[in-house]
Specification:
The chain has seven helices and nine strands. By secondary structure, the protein is α/β, with parallel strands linked by helices. The chain has two domains: 44 residues, no CATH class; 155 residues, Rossmann fold (3-Layer(aba) Sandwich), CATH 3.40.50.980. The strands form three sheets. It has a five-stranded parallel beta sheet. Helix 3 crosses helix 4.
Length: 209
C-alpha cells in the first residue's frame, strides 16, 4: 500500500540548526583540543565520573535499571553509583589508587567488571581493559606494556597466570566483595579530573592495519 507522504515542514539543515544551534538541546561549540579546533557538545560531561554522576537522574531518582545479566543480576543507576563510590574508596585506601594510576581489568562481562571500571575512572585513574581470551604470555605482555598498579581479575583468567603476576592481584571470586563493600555510604571521589586526562587503555585486534 502506497501512502501519500506529507511534505516536510523543515529541512535537515533547519533541524540540525535547531538542535545544535545556540540554546538547542544538543548545542555545539568550537573548542581547542591539543592545539586543534574541533566541534563538540556544549553541555557535555567533562569526564566519565561526571557522566556517572549524571546517571543519578535516570528514572527521575536513579531508580531506572542500569544493567540486567542473564543470571538475573541487576542494579539501578543509583545502586551502581553507590557501589562505584564504595569500591573507589577501597581502591584508594587499600591500594593507594589515585589520579593517573593504571588498574588492569581481566575478566568476563560481569557486574564486577562494570563496577571496577566505574570505580577506577571515578578516581581519575586509568582502566586498562585486557582481553579475556589472552594466554598467559599475552597477559604478561599486556601487564608489562601498561604497567598497572593493580590487577582485577576473575578466577578463570587469574588461573592462567602461573607464579607471580608482578602486580598486586584481586580475584573477583575471592577478595572483591570485601573491597567493593569497603565504604558503604561513601560519596564519589572529588579528585580533580581534566577533560583531556586519559580514562582507559583498550587493546584492539590489530585487524585495522
Amino acid at each position: 500500500m502506497i501512502r501519500d507522504m506529507a511534505e516536510p515542514t523543515m529541512s535537515i539543515a533547519d533541524v540540525d540548526a535547531m538542535l545544535t544551534g545556540e540554546g538547542g538541546f544538543f548545542e555545539t561549540v568550537p573548542v581547542i583540543v591539543n592545539g586543534v579546533e574541533v566541534t563538540t557538545a556544549k553541555n557535555r560531561a567533562p569526564h566519565l565520573r561526571a557522566l556517572l554522576q549524571n546517571s543519578a537522574n535516570h528514572g527521575g531518582d536513579g531508580s531506572a535499571r542500569y544493567y540486567v545479566f542473564d543470571d538475573g543480576t541487576e542494579a539501578t543507576f543509583a545502586e551502581n553509583i553507590a557501589t562505584a563510590a564504595s569500591l573507589a574508596a577501597g581502591l584508594a585506601e587499600r591500594y593507594s589508587i589515585g589520579h593517573g594510576d593504571r588498574v588492569a581489568i581481566l575478566a568476563a562481562n560481569t557486574p564486577e567488571w562494570i563496577q571496577s571500571f566505574w570505580a577506577v575512572t571515578s578516581l581519575g585513574a586509568i582502566a586498562v581493559a585486557m582481553n579475556g581470551w589472552w594466554t598467559e604470555d599475552e597477559i604478561r605482555y599486556g601487564l608489562e606494556l601498561t604497567t598497572p598498579k593493580l590487577l582485577l581479575a576473575d578466577a578463570k583468567r587469574a588461573e592462567r597466570i602461573t607464579g607471580d603476576p608482578g602486580v598486586p592481584l584481586v580475584v573477583f571470586e575471592q577478595d572483591f566483595a570485601e573491597l567493593r563493600d569497603h565504604a558503604p555510604g561513601a560519596e564519589l571521589p572529588d579528585t580533580p579530573i581534566d577533560e583531556d586526562d586519559a580514562a582507559t587503555i583498550l587493546f584492539t585486534s590489530g585487524t585495522t592495519g
